[in-house]
Input
Amino acid sequence: MTQALEKVRCLPADAAGQGVAVAVQDLRKHFRLKPARLLGPAREVHAVSGVSFTVAKGQTLGIVGESGCGKSTLARLLMGLIPVDAGAITAAGLAVDSASPAALRQVRRKIQMVFQDSFASLNPRLSVEASIMFGPMVHGVSRLEARQAAHALLDKVGLEPARFAGRYPHELSGGQRQRVNIARALALQPEVIVFDEAVSALDKSVEIQVLNLLQDLKNEFKLTYLFISHDLNVVQYISDQIMVMYLGKVVETGSAAQVYARPQHPYTRALLASMPSMDPSSRTLSAPVTGDPPSPIDPPSGCRYRTRCPHAQAVCATAEPALAGAAGPTASAGRAEPVHSAACHILSPASGHSMALAAQGAA
Ligand SMILES: Nc1ncnc2c1ncn2[C@@H]1O[C@H](COP(=O)(O)OP(=O)(O)OP(=O)(O)O)[C@@H](O)[C@H]1O
Ligand SMILES: [Mg+2]
Output
């Protein structure tokens, strides 16, 4: 393992010996905007500000957070679709470097993406079969082989090749189109797939079928998933690990079981409190997150959540909380679990926050 991978291990991704599929270190992407007025100061959208994480091979990392917190920007950086300002990304053992077309070509075989809009993702003039064949043929696979593989993949995603291979995107339902996009993503035999709200536009009954399909494909092809969704129920269902983002930063990370059962960051608690639950015993009493997030152009100093946090104190404006191990066991029944950590002064005894010691004492 490289030194870069060693350093970024905020989750012990290879605790069970599976190895690291994705490693991201100190990633930053600020979009420069035109000045608001002539000769005014340049402005920057702080879309992703110092994000680090790792995902073990064969795991699903669920990424959650409100609209505009930087989830899609992170996905686009991972795919090398936009250049990073700073930081390093390694996926499937390859460095993602958007400045090197040769490196990107290699990366694209290993890491694929499925988007929310199933229709826009497909070329309307290409048949289903031709869409799936396109990627492999660009990478030098013969037409015959590409067609055979496309038909096998259609079968895998639950679309009978004889019925669907010759159809066009407008002749398919949303669920069927998304199955074609999944087949297309699989065509280059990737190791990692990033799903950006990939099931969000589907009806609930179709959504669950596609989620189950994704689980089966992951097991069969030994894939690693990054799964972005605003639907916390869906993320809980599909994820092994969770990463909660707020205004371009990671505020909490841990196993799905840890984060959903014992959320540590006030923002995670608020998010989960606003999650619809059918089970009255699992409802929390803390207030759901209210109002809109502050502008990412001029994010709050210190802790970015402080302007909406019920526990904010002076220290929250002056010092940025680091991601630190949260209370609670990190291993159960001899099984290593990802470290559960959150970036909140309340969790750090030396922070100076008046609730910090009380929280430690209670743990
Ligand atoms: N090309 C761009 N130029 C300027 N700002 C951008 C650009 N792309 C994204 N942003 C801004 O960066 C921030 C993060 O956007 P991003 O799309 O990553 O959020 P998101 O978490 O995916 O949101 P959503 O849940 O709505 O999809 C937003 O404030 C967005 O307006
Ligand atoms: Mg998005």
Residues 3-34+43-125+168-266 form a domain with the Rossmann fold fold (CATH 3.40.50.300).
